[in-house]
Each structure stands twice: as C-alpha cells, then as structure tokens.
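User: Hey, quick favor. My workstation is busy. Could you predict this chain's structure for me?
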Amino acid sequence: RIYVHEKIYDEFVRRFVDITKTYKLGDPTLPETNLGPVVSLASAVRIRKQVDDAVKAGAKALVPEQLFPAAKVGTAYVAPQVLVDVDHSMDVMKEESFGPIVGIMKVSSDVEALALMNDSPYGLTASIWTNAEHNPASEEAFGRFVEGLETGTVFLNRCDYLDPALAWTGVKDSGRGVSLSRFAHEGKVGAYED
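Assistant: No problem, here it is.
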C-alpha cells in the first residue's frame, strides 16, 4: 500500500507506473530479469484475485498485463500492477500481497495517511519517504509517524533493508517474534512467544 499527498499524487503515480512498465518479468537466473516468479502457484492465484476483486470494486489498473508475456494463469509469474481509485474495502489495501502489485491512494494530510497506514490487521514494516535530510519540518513529521505507526519496523527513504544487527519484528497479525539482531541470536525472543 502506498499513500501519497494530493499535491504530488498525479506526478508520483505517473512516474511509478513508468518505472513499473520497464520491469523484466522472467527467469530469475537471466541477467536481464529483475522480477521473477512469486513464491507459489497458490500465492499467484491469491495475488491475481486481489487485483481482479479491486478492479471489480472500482479500482483502475494502470499497467497493461500484455507488457509481461511470462505472466500466465497457471504459473507463478505475475505481472506487476499499479492500482488507483482504491480504498480500504479492497483486500489489496488491507491484506498482505507478497507480490508485485500495489494500490496507491491519495491523502490530504499526514494525519489521514497515518490513520490509513494503521488500518490493517498487520504491522511488519512501514517506509516513509520524505526530504527529511534537507527539511527540519519533514524530519519532525517522520518522527510523528514513527511514534504513531503500529508496525514493528519503520524505514526512512528505503524499505525492507535487512541488517544482521537490526531486529526485524512485527506487531498485530504480523507476529511477535524477532529475527536478526542479538535478540534473535541470543534466543531472548522466540518466534512463537506471546
């Protein structure tokens, strides 16, 4: 899920779609491939259903699937898709997809974005993209997101960066265990601990 302020929404979506259209879906052992299959056929079916259901509910798909000939029903190859005109009645905005699809939603404020980001049964990671390094107000806004987000890990201007020293943990239905870091290594927090 991506939430973008209305002032930059149209330009962001345009650029995001342009980049997505350049992906090369295929055999992950080939050097030109930058998008391989999803983890299983069942996952591919679930991901395609999230896209289909969102479109039936009013979302607009912006990436033509024919750009990705490897994406065939019955395989684990899923075409990347960008959806707009989405809302939180759609699984693509509430459930974990673990695939190359995303809904992008326009917001009018940080308060609205934070509420929508927390409106999920999951809370593994979040990523906030801002010009915090050049703008003290943006840095303060990032701090408010960190304090208000119901998620295990929050990144600034990057996503899902794994570092052996950084604890990777979730909240809500994303789990309460810890991987990586000294906490997992020393066994102080187990994957099934309540």
